[in-house]
């Protein structure tokens, strides 16, 4: 077991090792999508790029970026990940909707 801390929401959730970051956010009612993303998200297939999160701490505890993810995030900061492509293997701190104010 490990933890995901959602910074903006001030919530910490306990998850099993290898948990999918997007699914755990949804299960815990953490809102990872902006308004547009809610309407258009691809359902976790790495296609839409709307599930972007910023990893504030613990990047080393995540699964390495997938090929799809690397393409989607080419022009984004190295701290950004697609939640749906990210598996959590250790404690991590996450900022949702990093480009929203
Ligand atoms: S949900 Fe579409 S890329 Fe993650």
TrEMBL record:
Record bears the keyword Acyltransferase: no
Cofactors: [2Fe-2S] cluster
Q: Which terms are listed as keywords in the entry?
A: 2Fe-2S, Iron, Iron-sulfur, Metal-binding
GO annotation terms (biological process): P450-containing electron transport chain
Name the Pfam families for this protein: Fer2 (PF00111)
Instruction: Reply yes or no: does the keyword Hydrolase apply.
Output: no
Coiled-coil positions are none
Record GO terms (molecular function): 2 iron, 2 sulfur cluster binding; electron transfer activity; metal ion binding
Show where the 2Fe-2S ferredoxin-type domain sits: 2-100
Family, per entry: Belongs to the adrenodoxin/putidaredoxin family.
- The entry's protein name is Iron ABC transporter substrate-binding protein
Native organism is: Stenomitos frigidus ULC18
């Amino acid at each position: 077991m490990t933890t995901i801390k959602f910074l903006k929401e001030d919530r910490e959730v306990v998850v099993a090792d290898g948990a999918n970051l997007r699914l755990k956010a949804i299960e815990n009612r953490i809102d990872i999508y902006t308004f547009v993303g809610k309407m258009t998200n691809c359902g976790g297939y790495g296609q839409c790029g709307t599930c972007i999160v910023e990893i504030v701490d613990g990047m080393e505890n995540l699964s390495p970026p997938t090929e799809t993810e690397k393409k989607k995030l080419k022009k984004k900061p190295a701290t950004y990940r697609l939640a749906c492509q990210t598996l959590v293997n250790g404690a991590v701190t996450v900022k949702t909707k990093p480009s929203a104010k």
